[in-house]
Amino acid sequence: MSICKFLRARNPYGMMEGGDNPWLLLDDANTICWCINSAGAMGPDNGLVSPKQCTKGRSCFVSQ
Asked: Is the pTM of this model over 0.85?
């Protein structure tokens, strides 16, 4: 699965950067995600930001 390079996340295990398979998100319930393009929880296309949603097919997606 390819994740957008602009996705960022923080959880109790540390930080995640975007790109191909950056690392497995172990605790989705405690993970905070944001897009560095929009600087918030909504992407430039007004869709929610998450590892499951920031993938190919989305208009704002950019691969690593």
From this structure: no
